[in-house]
Design a protein that fits this description.
heterotrimer, A alpha/beta (178), B alpha/beta (275), C alpha/beta (365), B: 275 residues, alpha/beta, Rossmann fold, 7-stranded mixed β-sheet, 7 strands, C: 365 residues, 2 domains
């Protein structure tokens, strides 16, 4: 992939898709790149689907709303179904095969599926499937340097939840190994 | 003669020498003076900020010698809230009529009261919109004829008058609510005491204080001043009984916080942070 | 303190933090999407720094609290989104009429009525022409990035104090919700009312009483005050026009866009340039005063203009007034909470370029 990313992170509210996007833009911030992060907002946040658009570029970001993603990060079936039609050729698509079982082959698109949520749970990382997927996303796209990614996760885990930092790093490494 | 004369009455310092713009026989003049006398007596004129309303007392900022802010119609409690929050050492009062306080400004009134803002409200209830020429007010009495209730206030369609002190007394933020009138010297003296007490409660941080003054509007009631006072006694006072409606100190509490806690003692979350 | 460090912030939060850093300690608000993060940020921060966050009973009460706090000499502000701003219009008119400084933030959403909660620019007219009754204007900033939101906010109180006028920051749901890197400005000292001799802080029995009012029953007196205010507006027009010119040096098609839509317009200009079309953009940063001089500068090369807005066409009237019909002005907009795409806008530019080429060919015949 090139160095310009237009990503969509989507899933159920509570799965941490906004957080996953935040980790990615945080890493771009460390590398002093242009970036934007834009969440969906409003009633759909309340228990429905949540998504965010992430742009990373060397040029100033125009619209932060990603309509033609070259990365789709789908944590459930409705999200995959909603966005798969808009991905551009050459895109990378990640989907959780447990929560998003119906994944199709799209020509010119690299699709990676794994039971991320199940793997997270089996590894004592319940609730961190989002971060496992970020690890996998990094492996497939190298959106930043490896070292930066770990700096980004440190910046994103709030001090109040410092005990979760190690599990988050473990989740990243797990994703990177898949 | 002058050297042996004793001054028994003079304009309070907190009133300017501007001539009142009120109608002859209107009780606003008395009430303006009582407020000014309270500022004099408590020695607080220099740190007082008055908030004046839209209504007949809209020009009261010309009469009070303290700093004054003119509020939009009904918003005096919101304006007074902010002035007090910015400079808590100021003494802040809102001077409002019935349309201003109990109709368009009811939300601001109720919420300033329930927040327990340390402000004093002087509420002049004369059961009519005076400045605009005598329309029905939220406190106009049943069957009272006004320009907009020409056949008398029909409660079946226009609803019932609002009794403000009764409405506010249940709010935990209210430290002191008293209804007074100024229809005779005795009641004027009682009103003066109530206004002083309301300011004192503010100064001592007890909570929100309001004094409702049952008043007349000879011009729009279409009566002589004497007959208006008579009508007040016969009709207003039975509907709006005088008296103290809330006084947390008299109930044995230091302030609204203590009184509110006693009332909420069985509610664990409300008692958090208290013994 | 590494103050010059870039941090990631939502636009709403950057506005709040920049307001605090510009010395604001009084915030009066009421919840509404999509500006709520701003109020939430204030609720969290103000108590920690000796400031006041007060959740008012309504937007009407909130703006009147701003009026009161400003009358008492404080730097006070409120924020809301479109329907809530309509409710605030009463207080803004009184603030203007009493010559008080204040800052009002509108994080716009689609309208009219309850409309939608998605980003929109359909309050342009309301902000620049008619937020409240009477003869007055207010300075309106239209930032287009999170950084610029912080910068405009940081400047807003200084300008409000200098001219004794309300200042509005007109953002929208996109800018309010999105995160971008921002370098936060240095905290300013919190000023007391000492340099506001008109403020109602108590006479201390040492001066004449101050009266803060917008009421002048004598028409001649009111006219004098209004004329004096409009004289001040002339100074504002001369000193406070702000805009960005992007690739306008040789531009034949000049886009005019502000805030969120200017981001899309910029991308469209890039596409146009890549396709060999001489396009550029004027981006008003102040909507009032409108950057008339900066826009007219482009008449040297421009053959046509395109106003790009997230509404049914509002700013275009100011564009036409500024250009005085010396060049044609077209419009491209989406409304209802829809953000136009660069592709759509580029399509319109291509259409205009083709028409211009056609006209040139005809002239040559």
């Amino acid at each position: 992939m090139g160095r310009d990313f237009n990503m969509v992170f989507a899933g159920f509210g509570g799965q941490g898709v906004l957080f996953a996007g935040k980790v990615v833009v945080e890493s771009a911030l460390f590398e002093d790149r242009e970036l934007s992060w834009m969440p969906s907002y409003g009633p759909e946040m309340r228990g429905g689907t949540a998504n965010c658009s992430v742009c990373i570029s060397d040029e100033p970001i125009g619209s932060p709303l990603v309509l033609e993603p070259n990365v789709l990060f789908a944590m459930n079936q409705p999200s995959y179904d909603k966005f798969i039609g808009s991905v551009v050729p050459g895109a990378v698509v990640l989907a959780d095969s447990v929560l998003c079982p119906n994944v199709k082959d799209v020509e010119g698109v690299s699709t990676f599926t794994a039971p991320f949520s199940q793997l997270a749970e089996e590894n004592g990382l319940k609730g961190l499937a989002n971060v496992v997927m970020v690890g996998k996303l990094w492996k497939e796209t190298h959106f930043c340097e490896e070292e930066t990614l770990f700096k980004a996760i440190e910046a994103c885990v709030p001090p109040k939840k410092a005990h979760l930092l190690e599990p988050n790093k473990k989740a990243l490494r797990l994703g990177m190994s898949l | 003669m002058a050297s042996t004369g004793k001054v028994v009455f003079q304009r309070p310092h907190a009133l300017t020498d501007a001539q009142f713009s009120y109608c002859p026989g209107c009780t606003h003049g008395i009430i303006n003076r009582l407020v000014a006398e309270a500022l004099d007596k408590l020695g607080i004129e220099g740190k007082t900020v008055g908030v004046v309303p839209v209504g007949c007392s809209v020009l009261a900022y010309n009469f009070f010698n303290c700093d004054c802010v003119e509020a939009a119609h009904g918003r005096a409690p919101a304006v007074a809230t902010a002035i007090k929050r910015v400079n808590p050492d100021n003494v802040v009062f809102a001077y409002q009529g019935d349309g201003d306080l109990a109709s368009i400004g009811m939300a601001e009134t109720v919420h300033a009261a329930t927040r327990g803002e340390k402000i004093t409200v002087i509420f002049v209830n004369n059961a009519i919109y005076g400045m605009t020429g005598g329309q029905m007010a939220p406190t106009s009495l049943p069957n009272q004829v006004t320009q907009t209730s020409p056949y008398g206030r029909d409660v079946a369609t226009a609803g019932y008058p609002v009794r403000v002190c009764e409405l506010l007394r249940d709010l935990d933020g209210v430290a002191y609510a008293e209804r007074v009138t100024v229809d005779c010297p005795k009641n004027v003296r009682a009103a003066k005491k109530a206004i002083e007490k309301a300011f004192t409660y503010q100064i001592e941080g007890v909570g929100y204080s309001i004094v409702e003054v049952v008043s007349t509007c000879p011009t729009n009631w279409g009566m002589s001043p004497q007959n208006a006072l008579k009508w007040l006694g016969e009709n207003m006072l039975p509907y709006y009984p005088l008296g103290v409606y809330k006084d947390v100190r008299a109930e044995g509490f230091k302030d609204i916080a203590e009184a509110a806690a006693a009332r909420a003692k069985d509610c664990p979350i409300a008692m958090q942070g208290r013994d | 303190m590494a103050e010059n460090k870039k941090v990631l912030m939502k636009g709403n939060e950057a506005l709040a933090e920049a307001a605090i850093r510009s010395g604001c300690r009084f915030f009066f608000g009421y919840p509404i999407t999509p500006q709520t993060e701003l109020a939430a940020y204030m609720a969290k921060r103000m108590p920690k720094i000796g400031g006041t966050y007060l959740q008012a009973e309504s937007e009407v009460a909130a703006i009147n609290m701003v009026y009161g706090a400003s009358a008492a000499g404080a730097r006070a502000m409120t924020s809301s989104s479109s329907p809530g701003i309509s409710l605030k219009s009463e207080g803004v008119s009184y603030i203007a009429g009493a010559d008080l400084p204040a800052v009002i933030i509108n994080v716009m959403r689609g309208g009219p009525g309850l409309g939608s909660i998605q980003p929109s620019q359909s309050d342009y007219w309301q902000a620049t022409k008619a937020l409240g009754h009477g003869d007055y204007q207010m300075i309106v900033y239209a930032p287009s990035t999170v950084q610029e939101m912080a910068d405009c906010m940081y400047r807003a109180f200084d300008v409000a104090d200098q001219y004794r006028t309300p200042v509005m920051i007109l953002a929208d749901g996109m800018l309010g919700q999105m995160m971008e890197p921002v370098i936060l400005p240095e905290p300013k000292e919190v000023k007391d009312a000492a340099d506001k001799p008109w403020a109602a802080t108590g006479t201390g029995l040492a001066r004449e009483h101050n009266i803060v009012t917008s009421l002048y029953l004598d028409p001649a007196e009111l006219e004098r005050y209004n004329i004096a205010r409009y004289e001040r507006y002339e100074v504002i027009k001369a000193n406070e026009q702000r805009f960005e010119a992007y690739q306008t040096e040789d531009a034949e098609i000049v886009l005019v866009a502000f805030g969120a839509s200017s981001r899309i317009a910029r991308s469209a200009v890039m596409k146009a340039r890549a396709a060999g079309i001489k396009a550029g953009m004027i981006r008003p940063i102040t909507l009032w005063p409108f950057p008339v001089d900066g826009l007219r500068e482009t008449l040297k090369t421009a053959k046509a203009y395109l106003s790009v807005e997230m509404n049914m066409g509002q700013m275009i009237e100011d564009v036409r007034l500024a250009l005085r019909d010396e060049a044609p002005v077209e419009f491209y907009g989406r409304t209802g909470g829809i953000i136009p795409t660069p592709v759509e806008v580029f399509g319109k530019i291509k259409e205009m370029a083709a028409a211009l080429d056609g006209a040139t060919a005809k002239e040559a015949e």
